[in-house]
Amino acid sequence: MELENKPLLCYVTAGARLAAEPPARTAALLHRIRAAVAADVDWVQIREKDLPGGSLAALARAAVDVARGSRTRIFINDRLDAAVAAAAAGVHLGGESLPVREVKQWCRAGHAPAEFQVGRSCHSLAESQTAERDGADYIFFGPVFASPSKESFGQPQGLEKLAEACRSVHIPVLAIGGVTAVNAGDCVHAGAAGLAAIRLFQDASNVAEVVEQLRHLR
Questions:
Q1: Measured between alpha carbons, how far is 211 from 65 in angstroms, rounded to an integer?
Q2: What is the pTM of this model?
Q3: Is residue 5's pLDDT more than 80?
């Protein structure tokens, strides 16, 4: 996994905030994904858990097409089938997703390209270590700060626990949960290899300016 342009920047989509109906949501998301690709965001994670399978597959394929020829890589949340079918860069797994170990075994059996990445959301030091042991290529750790989208995962972990997680594993750790342009530097200084966020990128009036600012944190 390339880390030369640290910190890794990942735009996590939240299309329900943009439009309720799938056609309108897809159009709104693709508009923002195009802007993120043009701004040279490293990753885009499509996190549209409530979209019907067909709509998600179409969005995934369209996003991969948008990113083709750029350095931006598209990841799909939870849906391994959609990620592979769309030729995405990888799949991101949560606590209720397929186990990392099983997905990695499936990939190694030749069902996915060798460069296909498998990530995992982690909310504790133990989960982080388990994810690495099971073969995860990277992890999201959080919520680091308070965030409306992460309230179901409990109280914020804070920078100290983020730092512990970063020290405890040898795979990239991306900080998520309440990450802003103001506190992003604290996450990087705590050891995070990257930053993952919804509002930071999706709500930005000029995502290119946000990316440029974050690129200078290291």
A1: 21
A2: 0.94
A3: no
